[in-house]
Amino acid sequence: xxxxxxxxxxxxxxxxxxxxxxxxxxxxxxxxxxxxxxxxxxxxxxxxxxxxxxxxxxxxxxxxxxxxxxxxxxxxxxxxxxxxxxxxxxxxxxxxxxxxxxxxxxxxxxxxxxxxxxxxxxxxxxxxxxxxxxxxxxxxxxxxxxxxxxxxxxxxxxxxxxxxxxxxxxxxxxxxxxxxxxxxxxxxxxxxxxxxxxxxxxxxxxxxxxxxxxxxxxxxxxxxxxxxxxxxxxxxxxxxxxxxxxxxxxxxxxxxxxxxxxxxxxxxxxxxxxxxxxxxxxxxxxxxxxxxxxxxxxxxxxxxxxxxxxxxxxxxxxxxxxxxxxxx
Amino acid sequence: xxxxxxxxxxxxxxxxxxxxxxxxxxxxxxxxxxxxxxxxxxxxxxxxxxxxxxxxxxxxxxxxxxxxxxxxxxxxxxxxxxxxxxxxxxxxxxxxxxxxxxxxxxxxxxxxxxxxxxxxxxxxxxxxxxxxxxxxxxxxxxxxxxxxxxxxxxxxxxxxxxxxxxxxxxxxxxxxxxxxxxxxxxxxxxxxxxxxxxxxxxxxxxxxxxxxxxxxxxxxxxxxxxxxxxxxxxxxxxxxxxxxxxxxxxxxxxxxxxxxxxxxxxxxxxxxxxxxxxxxxxxxxxxxxxxxxxxxxxxxxxxxxxxxxxxxxxxxxxxxxxxxxxxxxxxxxxxxxxxxxxxxxxxxxxxxxxxxxxxxxxxxxxxxxxxxxxxxxxxxxxxxxxxxxxxxxxxxxxxxxxxxxxxxxxxxxxxxxxxxxxxxxxxxxxxxxxxxxxxxxxxxxxxxxxxxxxxxxxxxxxxxxxxxxxxxxxxxxxxxxxxxxxxxxxxxxxxxxxxxxxxxxxxxxxxxxxxxxxxxxxxxxxxxxxxxxxxxxxxxxxxxxxxxxxxxxxxxxxxxxxxxxxxxxxxxxxxxxxxxxxxxxxxxxxxxxxxxxxxxxxxxxxxxxxx
Lengths: 328, 611
Hints:
The complex is a heterodimer. Chain A folds into two domains: 25-105, no CATH class; 110-289, MetI-like (MetI-like fold). Chain A has 14 helices and no strands. Chain A is mostly helical. Chain A is 73% helix and 0% strand. The longest helix of chain A has 36 residues, at 108-143. By secondary structure, chain B is an alpha+beta fold. Chain B is built from 21 helices and 21 strands. In chain B, the strands form seven sheets. In chain B, strands 1, 4, 5, 20 and 21 form a five-stranded antiparallel β-sheet that branches. In chain B, strands 8-19-18-17 form a four-stranded mixed β-sheet, covered by helices on one side. In chain B, helix 7 (154-168) links the parallel strand 2 (143-148) and strand 3. Chain B starts with a helix and ends with a helix. At the A-B interface, helix 2, helix 3, helix 5, helix 6 and helix 8 of A face helix 2, helix 8, strand 4, helix 18 and helix 19 of B.
């Protein structure tokens, strides 16, 4: 197991370089001139433009830009430094812990430090919400197949899946926030109280999937041979279900959760937009609109790392849940 | 097709791409442009070479992607299109009355605006339009419309195309919608070969600002290639006079535009604001920012809707509406403008100004006793240093362009880089058109000095300004927040480098009625409190909190739930409901911006100015 984990971590290295390079190349390929876009409807002073292009290495070829960004090629001196006769900053890239500056001259590390905790908090709250309610609903429905509770879970989850998140979000905001006044409309500070409603909106769809997955999987496993054996052995029902059936039934659910954690982190754009939460989804979206390479690459690199780690955790959990699975 | 894909992508990504882009520099940020002396020099040089008479260069011939088969240099085509557009219908149906139809070449907030029937060519007249269209050759295939994507222009451009199809019998239309940066690139390189959408927001409150840059020969935002000597002379005559005397010249220029129609003014922006029951006396200044010293509040605090400012919070850097709103409370400039009378009011740092008859020598006298929020005095030097910093090209200040509007003596020395001969490498990098031509080279020869010789602080309370050309409208230009003063702590930070400067801009030390309460919390809020030692007449409230929203719908809901006080960007979908719900607390007023549809009259000429 230990060797497996090490091997997986080593695999992170090519994935990291590959992913960052691909993202970098894609941002590089966005047509148009980001400096120009900064100035809106009107053209930019050519000297100012030249200074800014120099500052962001925009005139260099793709590979050289990437090298400077990632920290494998030293930075050229900027114009100010050149005028002052100073050398450049040397190797200053992601590998050195420098994420560079956004086009509006804010350190990307600051932007990430602002946005990541907020999204993480939101995602975690949504995650807990969907696990607790989703699995409980799934177990109840799965154990009493065909009962009223089962049908209720099936119908209500279908309804939740059918409603797009922006409809649910705005409706929740309007009813709970504006009409009833029970929750704040604006969750910009991302405090626990502010995030309850957005987390429920964000987690609702996944909750429905989890409930359905758990139900189906439990249903199937209840008819499996090893469950019959366990029951025949005379084990109490709680133990048969809790220890044998449920644990095995959770494997597809865990797979789903692993993907979902990453998706929650990166895919909360709409919820973040509705409730005005300045998280990473919004940061990336605005970065793309502005062709702000350093921001987009910085934040997506972080997301890549999150995806890699959550996938590793999922794979490790398989082995823990189902003793038949071995990685050595 | 690119257009479709782009639209779908944007639509899928977020409910309101429109709002995000509007805030992030998509639509019409309060911002601007260009023109260093090198630029002007090289461009006039090349334009004499390639300046072909309008008729000889049929722009459609060199058409690239999606080029249409129309000769837009034929004035009848332009007139026909203009008269075929029913702007009122578009305003009513698509914008639900939230804009005003364009009937003059500058918005109604400016002196000399005539509007109404002044220009029949701008009025809807389907019969005349159809007749002119036939006379000019009738249908010649599809017309390609160009606009920037994701900023809410799709609907009205499509409506215009439908009207043209119905009225003129145009057989087919095509659309090219591009992200903003790409779009401007194409405009600069004259690859836009059909009617194109652009907008303009005033730099200073004079019609001259809506004429010279957009229509004059080699104007910084002239993308139509329109060039008319009579027009240029009229604008120049207007610019060299005071605003009152200039009106006739500007109107004469407007008459020429009315005949020639290089553009069709589509609609003027309107400001729609609502406010809560907790606040009163809500009004907006001529730059559409809240009048912070006038607003009153029951609980002593006012929360104001803004979008995330895009730059450090001080005048030299802030060029969009979101940031300007905040900077407006933190800094005070020389003087302000009375919106109704259009008169300069000395309620800020300056006591008055004098100039010689021509308007080339100016003396500005400052009041004593004004201080920055850290206690240091506001002197003439605070202004002069701030202006020099803003104009000096290597600082790459977003508002450097504003220092090019009046021709300060010696401005060229701080703004322009040296030149060298272009190499094959430059050509490959699309820097210069041809090998051997001169290109700007900032790296090897930066501007020769970092101070503008024509601006001088004679003593603590006197600024002397020398201009190269008469410009009696200078006081109007100086209204803008690019001309705010900066304290010594700013220059200390600037000395230390980018990180220190950035940190300073997160918690700026201004001289305005409000000072920072802590730092700027990005995407959350900027909290400010009243500055007790403010030099002017102090505000009526203890604090103003600028709450930052990414989407106007959220802000609007927040205001309705009671958590927000003032919002000046009511969502389009809510306009009718807002009027009913807020009644007296709903404000609608004209702004100083417009959207227009330009015609590619002479692409080669336009390219020679901007390329």
